[in-house]
Design brief:
Structural class: mainly beta
CATH superfamily: Galactose-binding lectin
Largest sheet: 9 strands, antiparallel
Distance between the termini: 53 Å
Number of helices: 2
Radius of gyration: 21 Å
CATH topology: Jelly Rolls
Shape: globular
Helix content: under 10%
Number of strands: 21
Order of helices and strands: HEEEEEEEEEEEEEEEHEEEEEE
CATH class: Mainly Beta
C-alpha cells in the first residue's frame, strides 16, 4: 500500500512530539533525602579505621602508569562551603582512594558517613561530589571520551566477606568528562555504570540497582572502596592543585532516565557566563539525538513542556565514543540564582535533570567560593 502525504505528515509530527514534547508531566514537589559522606570542614583530612587518610593519594607506579605523589590537606580558600580537600600533586596522576579499611578487615562506604546508624537501605540512588581541576591541565576530552574515572567496588551485605571489597559483587567504572576551567564541576553518579571489569567495552551492562542480587540492598548500600582517578591524562606541569568537596549520597525522588543519561556533570564559569554540561549516552544508540531544555524552576515539577529548549540544544552522538557535551554562553543566566537543565533522548519520555547553582546561595546549597589569589582564580574558557 502506498504511503500517503497524510501518513508522512503524521509520522513527522510523531517524531517532533517525541523529541520536543510528551515527556513526564508536571509533578508535585518531593523531599530529597541526603546522607553526607564528607564535607571537609574539620581540622584535618579524615582517616579510616586503619589510621590512613580517607582518601589517600595512590602511590606513584610508573610501570602501570598510575598514581602519583602529593600531599593532602583541608583548605578554606576555595570551596563549595567551608573548606575543601586539596590535593597538591607533584608527580604522576590523580588517584584518590577511599578505602573503608580497618587494620585487617574491609567495611562499607556508608560506615564513613556522617550518621551511619541513620543510613536507610535501598533508599539513596545517587552520589554527588564536586571537583575542581587545576588550570595547568588539559581542558577536557573533545573526542566523546572521558578524563576522570569514578571506580567502585560492591560486595554482598548478608554474611559479607570481611577481607574483600567485592565478594558477591564486582568492580565498576563511571566515566566522567570534566572541564579544567578553574571553576567547580558538579558530578552526579547514578546506579548505571559505564563499564564492569572484564566486560566488552562496547556493551552496556545496564542498571546495577541491586548488583549483588540482594533485593533489600542497592548499589550504594553495597559500595565499599571507591576511587577518583585520571587514568589517561596528567597535568601539563607541577605542582597541580586538585580539589574535592561535599561528597553526599541522596535519594532522587523523581523517575529519571538513568539508562540513557549517566555520569552527568555541570560546570558554571561565572566570568564568562558559560555553562558546560557533560554526560554519557547508551552505547548502542549511535543515532539517537539528545534534547536539552532549561528552566529556573525544577523541571520535574513544572513538566518538560514548560521548560525552554536550550540554544542549539539538540546534541548529536559522536561515532568516536559515548560522551556528550553541551557548551554554551547563550543561556540567560545573569542575575539568576539557579538553572535546571534537563536532558531527554529523543526516543524516550523520561529525562534526567541537574540543578546548577549560579550564585553563592541556591536551594540551600552554596555555590563554590572563588579564591582570592591570582593563581587560584585563573580561568580557562574554550
Amino acid at each position: 500500500m502506498p504511503v500517503t502525504h497524510s501518513a508522512r505528515l503524521i509520522g513527522a509530527l510523531a517524531g517532533l512530539i517525541l523529541t520536543f514534547g510528551l515527556a513526564v508531566a508536571a509533578q508535585e514537589p518531593k523531599t530529597v533525602e541526603k546522607m553526607i559522606l564528607a564535607s571537609y570542614d574539620g581540622e584535618d583530612v579524615p582517616r579510616n579505621k586503619a589510621g590512613d587518610q580517607y582518601p589517600n593519594q595512590g602511590a606513584y607506579n610508573p610501570g602501570r602508569d598510575e598514581g602519583g605523589e602529593g600531599t593532602l590537606s583541608l583548605d578554606g580558600r576555595n570551596s563549595i562551603a567551608g573548606k575543601s580537600l586539596l590535593l597538591r600533586l607533584t608527580k604522576g596522576k590523580l588517584y584518590l582512594q577511599f578505602n573503608p579499611y580497618q587494620s585487617v578487615t574491609r567495611e562499607f562506604a556508608r560506615d564513613y558517613t556522617s550518621n551511619p546508624a541513620a543510613w536507610r537501605y535501598d533508599t539513596y540512588n545517587r552520589l554527588r561530589f564536586w571537583i575542581r581541576l587545576p588550570t595547568n591541565h588539559p581542558f577536557m576530552r573533545k573526542d566523546a571520551g572521558y578524563n576522570i574515572e569514578f571506580g567502585t567496588y560492591v560486595k554482598t551485605i548478608a554474611n559479607p566477606d570481611k577481607y574483600s571489597d567485592e565478594t558477591g559483587g564486582g568492580h565498576f567504572y563511571h566515566q566522567v568528562n570534566a572541564p579544567a576551567t578553574g571553576s567547580w564541576t558538579q558530578v552526579i553518579i547514578n546506579m548505571n555504570p559505564d563499564h564492569r571489569r572484564g566486560d566488552d567495552g562496547h556493551v552496556d551492562r545496564g542498571s546495577q540497582a541491586h548488583p549483588t542480587g540482594e533485593g533489600k540492598y542497592n548499589y550504594f548500600d553495597c559500595l565499599t572502596r571507591f576511587y577518583i582517578s585520571e587514568p589517561y591524562i596528567a597535568p601539563t606541569s607541577y605542582p597541580a592543585d586538585f580539589r574535592i568537596d561535599d561528597i553526599e549520597f541522596y535519594h532522587e525522588p523523581y523517575e529519571e532516565n538513568e539508562d540513557q543519561v549517566r555520569a552527568l556533570t555541570a560546570t558554571y564559569i561565572p566570568a564568562a557566563d558559560r555553562l558546560i554540561v557533560t554526560w554519557n549516552r547508551a552505547k548502542a544508540e549511535d543515532s539517537v539525538r539528545h534534547v536539552l531544555r532549561y528552566s529556573f524552576q525544577n523541571i520535574h515539577q513544572i513538566g518538560w513542556n514548560s521548560a525552554t529548549l536550550c540554544p542549539r540544544g539538540i546534541i548529536f552522538p559522536s561515532d568516536k565514543g559515548f560522551g556528550m557535551v553541551y557548551n554554551t554562553s547563550s543561556l540567560p543566566l545573569k542575575q539568576k540564582s539557579v538553572v535546571y537543565i534537563a536532558i531527554k533522548p529523543e526516543n524516550s519520555k523520561l529525562f534526567a535533570q541537574i540543578e546548577v547553582p549560579l550564585t553563592r546561595q541556591s536551594s540551600g546549597r552554596p555555590r563554590a567560593r572563588e579564591a582570592n589569589s591570582s593563581a587560584d582564580s585563573a580561568r580557562r574558557v574554550p
